[in-house]
Design goal:
Pfam families: Lyase_aromatic. The protein is mainly alpha-helical. It folds into 2 domains: 195 residues, Fumarase/aspartase (N-terminal domain) (Fumarase C, Chain B, domain 1, Orthogonal Bundle); 304 residues, Fumarase/aspartase (Central domain) (Fumarase C, Chain A, domain 2, Up-down Bundle). Helix content is 56%, strand content 5%. β8 and β9 form a beta hairpin. α4 crosses α9.
């Protein structure tokens, strides 16, 4: 197998796609010559302050509420070491590997701007850790999302020092010292300012936002696929998705979602058959008719979150910061409010997309609303229960998603003896968004599983080529209608096909890329 080419981190920030590739696919990392030169230049500024009688935060003072303490030169290496050890106070379950890799990469990208004052060797060691597949063990709790993600980043810095625990490239839990030695990486003894530079950033929040965004772009398109299959199998109308009607309310996400529904439903024999029926409904229920409005609003929310993420990717978040003209200045750029808000906003959108998906699923199961399908899509209703309890599972997840939509960013608990008296709770917002994305994946998968069964039950009428391709891909892994089978494995297989993008890809093999 050929070695992967490294992502070269330069003065320009990595893209969202590049962050995801390093985080999920294990792409190695290197620093450009320009970045190394900029790092070296800012380090000279920090070193010039070493003997300055004037106090400089993080260089010759304590931290937080202890910033009033002047630290003599001979104690400053201990100052940095103590900072990292004391701040590595995370607790709870391990955070996922992809999140930690994204976090380390984004901190490295900030170091590469030359605004933090670290030594080149420190930055290079982080790149080597990523490339070797060494992942520091970071815990669920510890970040308040202000002064950055302090505890999570401190655990990463601790590993760089050769302390604490890591997972190696094979996922084996090992002492950091052992893993670094095996990879030929020398532990770093931090110098002035470096401990602070390694932990004072929004890297964890941003990393989770970028990973969620990558998932949600796929999931919102997959939700359109699910809605199309439901509209089709419930004998709904596609007339409401017409471009001129959608243009009367010119939200871009709505236009994109409606366009997806139109191409997904094009050529449907099921829809053509019931258009000739004199009893065809003039208006469908909201969960069918308003799918572009809800899915589109979620898309527009995601576009706003992406804009915030792109600005944050271009930021050099540290305190104090080394300015381009050589000053070392304190600032408040580590506050996580911009990220916390959009992380919470996305959780609201995710909950609503899941909610409308569950409502469409429920319509399939009720003979009063499913237009001629058997109760619960059961093979022998009464003996068989069909998809009755699949909807229960979906409803339970949707209820949880509504709880996860409650914002974290409106909360603040003062810390550091009231020096840090207003915090963002952005890390918590990011953690719950990850759970919400998983929940949406499962809800949409159950709708697709149910809609595919209903499409089969509409035979001999055939679905549209695109929805039929998605149904057929599902049928390659999950059998069609019949007597009751254990549903859990079938739901899990549908979840896998949604999460991997395989069902969406099947539809797009007919339509081309959806919006």
């Amino acid at each position: 197998m050929l070695a992967q080419a490294p992502l070269v981190i330069g003065l320009d920030p990595p893209t969202m796609r590049e962050v995801v590739a390093v985080a999920r696919d294990g792409v190695p990392v290197a620093l450009s010559a320009e970045a190394l030169a900029e790092i070296a230049a800012s380090r000279k500024v920090v070193e010039s302050l070493a003997d300055d009688a004037e106090p400089h935060y993080g260089v010759s003072t304590g931290f937080g509420a202890l910033a009033v303490r002047h630290i003599p030169v001979e104690r400053r290496v201990q100052l940095q070491r103590s900072l990292v050890r004391s701040h590595a106070a995370g607790n709870g379950p391990e955070v996922e590997r992809e999140v930690v890799r994204a976090l380390v990469l984004l901190r490295l990208a900030t170091l590469a701007t030359g605004r933090t004052g670290v030594r080149t060797g420190t930055a290079v060691a982080y790149a080597e850790m990523l490339s070797a597949g060494i992942t520091p063990v970071v815990r669920e709790y510890g970040s308040l999302g202000c002064s950055g993600d302090l505890a999570p980043l401190a655990h990463c810095a601790l590993a760089l020092m050769g302390e604490g625990e890591v997972r190696d490239a094979a996922g084996v839990l090992r002492p950091a010292s052992e893993a670094l030695a095996a990879a030929g990486i020398a532990p770093v003894e931090l110098a002035e300012k470096e401990g602070l530079a390694l932990i004072n950033g929004t890297s964890g929040m941003l990393g989770m936002l970028l990973l969620a965004s990558a998932d949600l772009h796929r999931l919102f398109a997959t939700a359109d696929l699910a809605a199309a299959m439901s509209v089709e199998a419930l004998l709904g109308t596609d007339a409401v998705f017409a471009a001129d009607l959608q243009a009367l309310r010119p939200h871009p996400g709505q236009a994109d979602s409606a366009a997806n529904l139109r191409v997904l439903l094009a050529g449907s024999a099921i829809m053509a058959g019931h258009r000739r029926d004199a009893t065809t409904r003039v208006q469908d229920a909201y969960s069918l008719r308003c799918a572009p409005q809800v899915h589109g609003a979620a898309r527009d929310t995601l576009a706003h979150a992406d804009a915030v993420a792109e600005r944050e990717l271009a930021a050099a978040v540290d305190n104090p910061v080394v300015t381009t003209d050589g000053r070392v200045e304190s600032n408040g750029n580590f506050h996580g409010a911009p990220l916390g808000y959009v992380l919470d906003f996305l959780a609201i959108a995710v909950a609503d997309v899941a909610s409308i998906s569950e409502r469409r699923t429920d319509r399939f199961l009720d003979v009063a609303r499913n237009h001629g399908l058997p109760p619960f899509l059961a093979d022998d209703p009464g003996v068989d229960s069909g998809h009755m309890i699949a909807q229960y599972t979906q409803a339970g997840i949707v209820s949880e998603l509504k709880r996860l939509a409650a914002p974290s960013s409106v909360d603040s608990i003062p810390s550091s003896a009231m020096q840090e008296d207003h915090v963002s709770m952005g890390w918590a917002a990011a953690r719950k968004l990850r759970r919400a994305v998983d929940g949406l994946t499962r809800v949409v998968a159950i709708e697709l599983l149910t809609a595919a069964r209903a499409l089969d039950l509409r035979a001999p009428y055939a679905p549209a080529p695109a929805t039929g391709a998605a149904r057929d891909r599902l049928r390659a892994a999950v059998a069609g209608p019949g007597p009751d089978r254990t549903l859990a494995p079938e739901i899990e297989e549908a979840v896998r096909l949604v999460a991997s993008g395989e069902l969406l890809a099947a539809a797009e093999s007919v339509t081309g890329p959806l919006r």
